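Sequence in, structure out. Go.
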Amino acid sequence: MEKGIDLSCWNEVDDFYKLKKAGYTFVILRAGFGKLADQKDSHFEDFYKRARTAGLKIGAYWYSYATTVDEALQEAKACLECIKDKKFEMPIYYDIEEDATYATGKVNEIFLKFAEYLKSQRYIPGLYSSTGYLDKYIKPETITNGKYPLWVAQWFTTCQYTGAPYQVWQYTENEHPPGVVGSCDADQCYATFDYIKKYGWNGYTVTASKTKPNPLTAEELKAVLDVCAGKYGTGESRFKKLEAKHFNATRIQNAVNEVSKSTSVFGIINNLKAIGLYV
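Output:
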C-alpha cells in the first residue's frame, strides 16, 4: 500500500520534496473541468512540474459536468488537450460528482464514452466517485468489463464499497502532510500500475533497443499463444480486447506475425529471437 494526496487549485503546496520525504509517493492532480481545454486547472502545470521534479508518481483527474454522451466526449477531448505531452504513472480519472449527471440515468454511458476515447488515445482512464453514488448508480460491469481502475471516495476509517475492485481509496479531506499549506485530500493506493510504463500508456512509449533484446514477458507470451488459438478474435476487435487487458496490442500482433511464419517450435523461437522478442 502506498499513500498520496490529490490536489487542485484549491490547494497550496510549499514543498513537494517534503511531501515525498514524509512517505507520500504519489499525487493525483486535477487537470481541469468541463468541455473546454481553456478550463485547465490553474495550478495543474505548476503542480505537475514540481511533483515530477520531486520524483513523485503522478495521476490526473478531470471534473465532469456532462449530462450527455456527446458532452462526455467533448470533456474527454478537452482533458486530452490539457494532459498531452506529459507522462503519468497513474490513471486519468473521470471525476463524476454532479447530481445532474447521475440524474440523467445515463451515467454509465457517460463514463464509458469518456473512457473509451481516452483509451483510444493510449491513456488509461479510470472512474472517481463516492460510495453512495457507486452503490446507487454505477453498474459493476461498467468497471470490470473494461477493467477500468476505480478510485473510491469514502471519508471513514475503512472503505466499505464492495461492488467492484478498487485500487485507490480517498479516505479523508483533512490531511495535513508536510509541504502542503493547510489541509488536503489523502489517498491510499493498492496497485502499482506498472503496466502503464511497461506497455506504453499515458504518454510513455515502448521502444525496442537495437543493442539489447526486449523479450516478451510471460504474460505477453501467453497472450500471443491465446491470439494464435483464436481467443482474441480478429482485426480491430482483437486490438481492443488486448488493450482492455493493458497489453501493447501492436507488440503482441508483431509477435503473432512472426509465430505464423513457422509451423515448428524451433522455427517460432528463431523468428522471435530475430526481432528481439525471445532470448
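Check: The beta strands are 2-7, 12-13, 24-33, 57-63, 92-95, 125-130, 150-153, 168-175, 180-181, 184-189. The first helix runs from residue 16 to 21.
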